[in-house]
Design brief:
The chain is α/β, with parallel strands linked by helices. Helix content is 54%, strand content 13%. It has an 11-stranded mixed beta sheet with strand order 1-13-12-11-4-10-9-5-8-6-7, with helices on both faces. The protein has a 3-stranded antiparallel beta sheet with strand order 14-16-15. Strands 2-3 form a two-stranded antiparallel ribbon.
């Protein structure tokens, strides 16, 4: 590696597209900054944030957008000269946002070239900030795989998300993914930190360009010694403010440069005795803010609706409790009246006694009428209460379904990446258009299957009921083990395994019910399987319920699952019809459709590398990434693909 201390850098690889970072003309190639991995470090006051702002100003001057993750709320000064969207949790931001806005923020940055300051300094709960950052990074990564547009994500205090010690959460894992694989899609990442010793070393050592400002702590200078060498580890302690060692991989040089001062307001400066005048800040288009506000309003309406229903539910429960109290009081009064009437009947009190008995009888009838009215009101309120509970559950299921759909999109992205990595390992040019066509074809086939299945069940409904009435088989099945040992049930379980995300979760669901000997919750099944989430459990339960092997019941707001012994007749009828339908040829509709859509493709195991059919393998990979993600890991090398269980 060569060393240049006079400050003159190499000519830019991109012609005029370079970033001038020092008064002496030292510059950085734009494409390397936008798509590469960068690291800027230095102790407080050494010039770290100023250098990052200089790079941001240079990019904005040339019309290149970027996204800045601002941890301390010190980058809004850029709005003094540039139209930037400032979002976060503070009132000073253009708009308050949450993780629901993540996808839209990424789309504005890439598709509409909107420079964005993602200010996370105002979030009291760090998990909210991390969820927002993770969502934005994930959406940027997904979009860039199609856009291939050079774009920089600059993250302050990166050691908080990818620390050297301890495990990474979902936010940290996403940032590492961007750092490792974003470059080939056009997505760059630049991390900033005061303490390089606290930053994950795998990130630092993989960076293409690094800026080392003054560092004095032994652990930090040890990192400099490891990356630059002993001489630089001693010299880095003596650097002036704004001065730094600039290390660039594209020319293999280390230069000592004095960064120029940024031209915009320094919002991160240490407060002094003099009053600081906040500058006039530029704002982005109102239409952009309106798009984000629409998301906020939709989310707020949903939350308000849930809160409103919960309040109404609570109010109804209070009314029911009051009515129960009144009902008990009325019953007590009625009981006393009956006792008093019986006592009078035993004593002959003449006309006065008859008058008293008549009055008491009238009172008793009146109270009985009140009791009937209270009972009617109580029943009506109970029905209404059940309706409200059902509506609350529906809204919660909608929220859960949205999260599951986002996870599904992530799974699709992972499948596509596996497809591309397989092509790279085998030395075959991936056919992205063909892959997209196959993916669309899979979705079309699944829709056709669902429609065909619904029509078939509707047509055969009468036949099923007739068979159930004739057989009346539930009496012969008494225990769980007898039920799952039935041949038709075994066929139904196998069918459920094909539809579930993993066959192991289907067996685990049944095993948990048998082990407990009673209905179980989704959480019970997850504990039995040793997993932390219930999304895969839900897939297994839904697949089993589709085959009538299990039945779901909601009690007290919780979903319980039990083996559907009473539905053995349905299962046998379905098995009988399935056997009759498969007599001519035993090919599953889904597999048959896939064979038709790619009839000329050969099995990967039956061909050599020269006649390897890319489309036929792509379908298999996409399918396997959804059906066996947990039970199978794919490893690639130059010779082919190995499946390691």
């Amino acid at each position: 590696m060569s060393t240049d201390t006079d400050g003159s850098g190499p000519p830019s690889k991109e012609g005029n597209h370079s970033l001038t970072i020092a008064q002496d003309g030292t510059s950085l190639p734009v494409v390397e900054v936008l798509t590469g991995r960068g690291f800027i470090t230095g102790k407080s006051g050494a010039g770290k944030s100023n250098s990052a702002s200089v790079i941001a100003e240079e990019l904005l001057d040339q019309g290149f957008p970027l996204l800045i993750v601002d941890v301390d709320g010190e980058y809004y000064g850029l709005k003094e000269q540039y139209e930037m969207l400032h979002v976060g949790a503070d009132e000073e931001c253009d708009l308050q946002v949450s993780k629901e806005h993540a996808a839209k923020i990424a789309e504005l940055a890439l598709d509409e070239n909107v420079p964005i300051i993602l200010d996370v300094s105002g979030y009291l709960d760090s998990s909210e900030a991390e969820a927002l950052i993770q969502g934005v990074a994930q959406r940027l990564f997904a979009l860039e795989k199609k856009r291939k547009k050079p774009f920089l994500m600059l993250v302050e205090e990166i050691h908080e998300y990818i620390p050297e010690g301890g495990s990474l959460n979902e936010c940290g894992q996403m940032l590492i993914k961007v750092a490792k694989r974003g470059r080939k899609h056009g997505l760059g990442l630049c991390g900033l930190s005061q303490r390089p010793a606290d930053v994950k070393k795998d990130f630092i050592t993989q960076c293409d360009w690094l800026v080392w400002h003054r560092l004095t702590w032994d652990n930090d200078t040890a990192v400099v010694r490891r990356v630059l060498g002993s001489d630089y580890a001693d010299s880095v302690q003596e650097l002036d403010d704004g001065e730094a060692f600039l290390m660039t991989d594209w020319d293999g040089s280390i230069r000592r440069v004095q960064f120029k001062r940024k031209s915009t307001f320094d919002a991160g400066a240490t407060p002094g005795l003099n009053d600081i005048q906040r500058p006039n800040l530029k704002s982005v288009s109102g239409d952009i803010v309106d798009e984000l506000e629409a998301i906020s309003e939709h989310q707020q309406k949903r939350q308000d609706r849930i809160a409103q229903l919960e309040n109404r539910l609570e109010s109804r429960e209070e009314e029911i409790e009051e009515l129960r109290s009144e009902l008990e009081q009325a019953r007590d009064v009625n009981q006393l009246a009956d006792q008093f009437t019986e006592a009078l009947a035993k004593v002959d009190t003449g006309s006065e006694g008859e008058e008293v008995k008549s009055t008491l009888e009238s009172l008793r009838k009146e109270k009985n009428q009140q009791i009937r009215e209270l009972q009617s009101d109580n029943e009506r309120l109970r029905d209404r209460n059940e309706e409200l509970e059902s509506r609350v559950e529906e809204l919660e299921e909608e929220v859960e379904a949205t999260e599951q759909f986002e996870q599904f999109e992530a799974n699709v992205d992972e499948a596509t990446e596996a497809y591309q990595r397989l092509g790279e390992a085998l030395g075959i040019e991936p056919q992205s258009e063909k892959a997209e066509q196959l993916r669309n074809r899979v979705e079309e086939l699944e829709s056709e299957i669902a429609a065909s299945r619904a029509a078939q069940e509707e047509e055969q409904g009468h036949t099923e009921r007739a068979v159930q009435q004739e057989q009346s088989p539930s009496a012969e099945i008494q225990t769980y083990r007898e039920f799952i040992s039935d041949e038709a049930v075994e066929v139904a379980i196998d069918a459920a395994k094909e539809d579930a995300s993993s066959p192991g979760y289907v067996d685990g669901t049944i095993g948990c019910i048998i082990e407990e000997g009673k209905p179980v919750t989704y959480e019970d099944i997850a504990d039995h399987l040793g997993i932390s989430t219930t999304s895969h459990v839900a897939s297994a339960v839904n697949a089993l319920a589709e085959e009538d092997v299990v039945e779901k019941e909601t009690r007290g707001g919780r979903a319980f699952v039990d083996l559907a012994i009473e539905d053995i007749g349905k299962i046998r009828g379905r098995a009988r019809r399935r056997e009759e339908a498969e007599k001519p040829r035993r090919i599953a509709p889904y597999s048959e459709s896939l064979l038709r859509s790619d009839a000329t493709s050969s099995s990967p195991s039956a061909v050599n590398r020269q006649d390897f059919s890319w489309p036929s393998v792509s379908t298999t990979i996409v399918r396997s990434c959804f059906s066996a993600r947990r039970s199978t890991s794919l490893r690639f090398d130059g010779r082919g693909v190995r499946h390691a269980l």
